[in-house]
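tool_call predict_complex ligand=pyridoxal-5'-phosphate
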Amino acid sequence: MNKELLSILEKNSRITPAEIAVMLGTTEEAVKEEIKKLESDKIILGYRTLINWEQVDKDTIKAYIELKITPQAAKGFDRVAEKIYKYPQVKSLTLMSGAYDLLLEVEGETLRDVAMFVSEKLSQMDSVIATTTHFVLKTYKKENVIFQHPDKDPREVITL
Amino acid sequence: MMNYDNILSKKASCIPPSGIRKFFDIVSEMKDAISLGVGEPDFVTPWPIREAGVTSLEKGRTHYTSNAGTMELREEISRYVNRKYNLNYNPKNEIIVTVGGSEAIDITLRALLNPGDEVLIPEPSFVCYKPCTILAGGVPVPIVTEEKDNFRLTKEKLLEKITDRTKVLILPFPNNPTGAIMEKEDLEAIASVLRDTNIIVLSDEIYSELTYNGKKHVSFASIDGMWERTVTINGFSKAFAMTGWRLGYLAAPAPLCSVMYKIHQYAIMCAPTTSQLAAVEALKNCDGDVENMCKEYNQRRRVLVDGFRKMGLSCFEPEGAFYVFPNISSLGYSSEDFAKKLLEEEKVAVVPGTAFGECGEGFVRCSYAYSIESIQEALKRIGNFVERHKK
Ligand SMILES: Cc1ncc(COP(=O)(O)O)c(C=O)c1O
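tool_result ok
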């Protein structure tokens, strides 16, 4: 039931264990136990709310930053990553294949905030060879959710 | 003044209009009603299929195809029904691509029936078998399927209705509206009755990809000795969420196919070209999409059945399609009154069971082609209603 349980929770973390139990044809107890286990195994890492901040009057600037790093042996990338993800501005960090090595999602209140973070923090690190900053203009889809207001049900109300 | 009554075809005029048309009109005009009345998927056609359709238009593929459908699509259908249902049909002369399963049903009956031929129709079932039979000159003979038999067709019920005028047996499983399926043993029992007759089976398997509890669909034509007497009908509407594309198919022995082919050729020419080109993508690359949709339907199915049972209603567990068919007779209303009152008082639309045959009295059809959230809200309202009207 693991994967199906996870995909239900991934879509709606507010659903209750009782509701999940019905959907999966099992007991509430079994679902609670499974969730507890998934939490303690650090497979479920948290329960968040997906927010379209662009609809809210909040000035945040988002950027994706590509980092090229000096070639690293074995755990080298992990060590560099550890240094970078400690900054609270860094919202996500992934190691990539291809033309660059690390991809960061960074947030700041102004363009300047983000630019300063890149020039004063990231670029100064010994192992960083090059950075490319891409500012986010608009989000269309995130976490499998399309951000546009959904259309209403286009179907006829009754068909046999 | 023209007297149209004298002009119109007697046969066509005599087809009873759907008795619940008025009810539908009320629902359509009600703004904030929650409907569980829809007989089509809520999912949009998977993107790769839509893209294949768009690409075909960009390439200028805007012409007729060969009458039976493109050879590529027929070959894919042949492969698909083989890998899924263990069926063997020659794409050259045993498969016709049609305008939905609907056309396939129509041309099958028209190709088979002589005046007075009887067509056995298990009920409750989809609404088109009876009028299509009448239009083709046949006589519809309902066979009642019952909740106590899990709405399956039994050998005994079938034997009761067979006469020497019986030409066709319709096998509408997985069933709309009951959600009943027929397992291999059930089909074997039917086959044992038919084996020594000349009865042809029209097997409407349009919901074949949507079955639950691990019970994979079994095609009637795959039962020993039945291929030669079966017209297998299927389509893209339900499995691939492609209702608006109007595409289906039939597969049958060549001598039968050749007559259906003639009707199709003159009445239709060919199924929509864009849809045919998109459908190739569906059959080749979309098993995963179908599986995911099926998984979601299954979750919703459990929520609906559980919801009705918790209200104290008897609710048969459907194992196919996307409908549940709760028994509401304990409230003392007819199906139609129940549906009307529920709509007036709680603004939830369900379909009276009688829309699917007289024996649907006492039941209503609820579709679970809706989001879990809508289903939960609808259940809450129906629960309030049942609480208030409980006897
Ligand atoms: C049992 C059954 N058969 C056939 C059809 C016709 O489907 P289509 O013509 O879209 O293939 C439907 C549609 O609701 C159905 O429920």
